[in-house]
Amino acid sequence: MQTAPRTVAAGLELHSPKEPGEPPTPVPGTRQASSGEGPSAQREALVPGLGAFQRAFSRVSQRTTGRASEEDPGLLRRSSRFLFRSLRRSKDHRPAVDQDQATAVPGAGHGPEELSRAIDGVGQQASPREEPEELESEAGKSVADLITEWQLLAAFEQLQRLETRLVAEKASHTFEQDPTGFARRAMDVCLHYDGLAAEIRAIVRETLGPDGVAADALAELARVVRAEEEAHPGPPADGDFLRTPRRWRQLWEDEVRRSAQERVQRAGAGEAAGLARLLAELGGLVRRDLQKVRLEVQPAYAAAGFPAWETYLRAYHGAVAQRLQELAQDARGCEQLYILLDWAANVYGSPNFLGAPDLTLSTEPLPRLLAPEVWAQLESDYTSFLETKIASCFESILQLEQSRWAAAVDPEVLQGRYHSSLSIDIHMLVAEHVKAAGSISAELEATTLRICARALGLFLPRFEKTFLESEAVSEPHLGANINACEELRTNLLARFPGAFTELEQPLVAATCIFQKRLLQCLQHNVQGSEATWLDQAIPCVADILGETYKDDIQRHLEALIGGYPDIRQEHVLAILALRRLGRRRNHRLLQRAQDLLSAGRADTAGGRVLFEEIQVPASVDLLITCI
Description:
- The chain is mainly alpha-helical.
- It folds into 4 domains: about 210 residues, no CATH class; about 110 residues, no CATH class; about 140 residues, Tetracycline Repressor, domain 2, CATH 1.10.357.50; about 100 residues, no CATH class.
- The chain is built from 23 helices and 2 strands.
- Strands 1-2 form a two-stranded antiparallel ribbon.
- A hairpin with a 2-residue loop joins strand 1 and strand 2.
- Helix 10 runs parallel beside helix 12, helix 14 runs antiparallel to helix 15 and helix 17 packs antiparallel against helix 18.
């Protein structure tokens, strides 16, 4: 819904005083002061037009929410001086100062401040009956009425005519005998110009408010700014303050920035719902406001060639940047820091931020939302907290594994292999944080990878030591941990090339330690006889697993098959699976083992039977699943 311009009963013009002893005539359409009204009201009733002037000026000031005194202290200072002198003239019908204190009216080369100071000292040289000129248009409406009804262009054109006539009269020395009369009329024009400026501010402030502003009012604003620029293209050569450019375009831009800043600062103010909620409200407000500017405000200004979209966009961008830097100073903890970084990079920085494919933030690059040093500090603080968080996550993984060991439950068998959740937990931990960091910046992603690799490097020896010292050491758990280490070594290195290279050796070392412990368990199981020749089985397997020169593995395998011809192919498969030689070499060794087993199937080596008579189901199942 849009608001219509508001009207007032009387404008900013000053009316002439009546003769002494003549009762004041009520202004049509206004209420006459009663005996019960205060001194202010009685004083307004005694001075015709003064109360209307004060009320109209007060309304204009209220529309700017009290900013007029802050933004232009000279405006209220000059107007108050003028009002008080008018009051004294009207009450006393005598000069405000002695005639000998009168000074010449400021002329060429003097500005508004000089004019104000001059008025303070000039005497009343005009006769008591002389009336100041009323600023009314041909249609009978005062300039003040035109301003408050948002007929800004008509008000400006009337002011320009008065300004032109006043300048001409000054040039013709009309006011040589009445400098105060010129000052009074010049101040009238200046105050009405200030009233127009205040109304421009009010329109800008209400544009994005709940009621909005009609499109024709926005177009009127643009036209009056253009008209003023054409009327005052530059400072006059003689320095005449009346013809000095009013710079309303700059005033409009400043008010757009101020309005954007206030609206952005109010978003989420006073909320205790947390940073994420605040940023969500901030994003919603900026999105709604910019959509309204693009779809409603910009078309209204476009006819006058006003760059409304670019001005509003940069105003909101600057306001959001300031708000975000303020929030960054108070952000604490890994989560809050990430929320800020993510909102800046992925929410506000998204091409779909405005919610429509044909609405983008800018066709030209905007300044960085956060200064480089602020962004770098945020990332640095985030990674510091992240190191602590990831270390805590690895500690939680270790505690979870310990709880599983204490439950004395064997690991699951998936696709014929003993399976541990250790590998899945670590993969998810690394992938989650790396993906989150990568969505913000490549630099943060690389830093997060280094943090994860360092934390995993510290975790592995702790995990290995804790497991081997626990009561959970068994063939199934050893097999599951061997598989977990192998998955980490192959998958992490393949998924993040270069980031986990330094972890390959620690993972291989952990695998070897778990394999050695597994062989010790197997040796203990076959102690399942008094035959001394059985003692050679474990060294034969150990030779295969520990041989560093891979071409000699076939020789050790042939010795094992020759000493124990009852060995079966699945046993050979399990042993080779522990060595992890690769598909091609394994195929060649398996083929050689099959040939030897086929040739010596009937020969039991003098009754030496190991694999057929000794029951080692857990160990054999373990070796088979490790393939």
